[in-house]
Write a structure and sequence with these properties.
The chain is 39% helix and 22% strand. It has 357 residues and is α/β, with parallel strands linked by helices. The strands form 2 sheets. A 10-stranded mixed β-sheet has the order 2-1-3-12-11-4-5-10-8-9, sandwiched between helices. β6 (136-145) and β7 (153-159) form a beta hairpin. It starts with a strand and ends with a helix.
């Protein structure tokens, strides 16, 4: 019996709804695959916790999470709490505190879901975006001076280190090597950002020499949006900075049909700390409590978590069930369906228990 301790942090908005759906599906999986067991512990950290305690999570939060095999995270953000408080109070302290320096976002068009791209076959869009997750533009360096005065100044300093850039490049090249096409695109903006991004390019070229079997190219981030839209089949594995990949991965999710189906993993590749897995759709307060949130992203995120834990069979079973349900037209309104989150979840559970999934 392989037992995994999973910390669930549903947090804000639709987070509790989709994480509840995800844990229910994982419980169905452990019934199907009898030698795998999940032990969940839920933490009530988030914006409501902040309103009561003045912090998004307790001071010993990271120490508490160290005991778990993985973290299953919902969404953070609330209309009545400033975004920089919610983000820097919960999600980023976990990512940075556990050095989850590789943010990995797979994207493909699932059966039954229509891409907004014209004349695209589902197989034309099958990408993995690797986002540098520990430094770059989101390092938190900078400050403000002369507040409220005409000469007020705000600085936001992007930090690129040789260690940080080298390790994310190696991770991306290794991932590209593991995929059938062995193709990597390095996203940059070195024509305008002539220090950190030029170093980014130089290190990419250095690391590429370690992977002669991987074909790679380089693309300016603005041109990358055009390539993703007009030539999706020309891409496979993509690596970009913290900011660039944050933007491009949302575009990727939209091109695949909906952010409601897009997953992500915040990975510590060295496995010193638990990695964290989350859907990327955000807290979506406009649909919170309406029962129409799309749980597919949380299911796909759970499959990523299973892969990271070494449970490939369970991950594949889950994704086959999700593909069957989507293909059968059981979909929430964001992807053209009429089903509720409960109906989609129940259909995926039924598919998991089906003999031929």
């Amino acid at each position: 019996m392989r037992e995994y301790a999973i910390a669930t942090i549903p947090a804000d908005g639709i987070g509790p709804e989709v994480i509840a759906a995800g844990t229910t599906v994982l419980e169905a999986l452990q019934e199907r695959i009898s030698d795998v067991k999940f032990k969940f512990r839920t933490f009530d950290w988030g914006s409501d916790y902040y309103k009561k305690h003045g912090v998004m999570m307790p001071a010993d939060g990271l120490e508490t999470l160290k005991a778990f095999d993985a973290i299953y995270f919902g969404a953070v953000g609330a209309p009545d709490v400033p975004d920089h408080i919610t983000l820097w109070g919960l999600r980023l302290p976990i990512c940075q505190g556990f050095d989850q320096y590789a943010n990995v976002r797979p994207t493909r068009i699932l059966p039954g879901i229509t891409s907004p791209l014209r004349h695209v076959d589902p197989g034309d869009l099958d990408w993995v975006i690797v986002r540098e997750n520990s430094e770059g533009e989101y390092s938190g360096n900078g400050g403000r001076a002369h507040r409220g005065l005409p000469e007020e100044v705000g600085t936001e300093v992007a930090i690129f280190t040789r260690v940080g850039v080298t390790r994310i490049m190696r991770y991306a090249f290794r991932l590209a090597r593991s995929r059938p096409r062995k193709l990597l695109t390095v996203v940059t903006k070195s024509n305008a950002q002539r220090h950190g991004m030029v170093m980014w390019d130089e290190i990419a070229a250095e690391v590429a020499k370690e992977f002669p079997d991987v074909t790679w190219d380089k693309m300016l981030v603005d041109a990358m949006t055009v390539r993703m839209t007009l030539k999706p089949q020309s891409l496979d594995t993509i690596v970009a900075t913290n900011l660039h990949a944050d933007i491009l991965s949302d575009l990727a999710g939209a091109l695949a049909g909906s952010l409601g189906v897009a997953p992500t993993g915040n990975i510590d590749p060295e496995r010193r700390f638990p990695s964290m897995f989350e859907p990327i759709h955000g807290s979506a307060f406009d649909i919170t409590g309406k029962g129409i949130a799309n749980p597919v992203a949380s299911f796909w995120t759970a499959a990523q978590m299973l892969d990271h834990l070494g449970e490939a069979e369970a991950s594949e079973c889950l994704m086959r069930a999700v593909a069957r349900v989507c293909g059968a037209g059981i979909r929430t309104p964001d992807v053209g369906g009429t089903a509720t989150i409960r109906e989609v979840t129940e259909a995926v559970i039924d598919a998991i228990h089906s003999a031929n999934v």
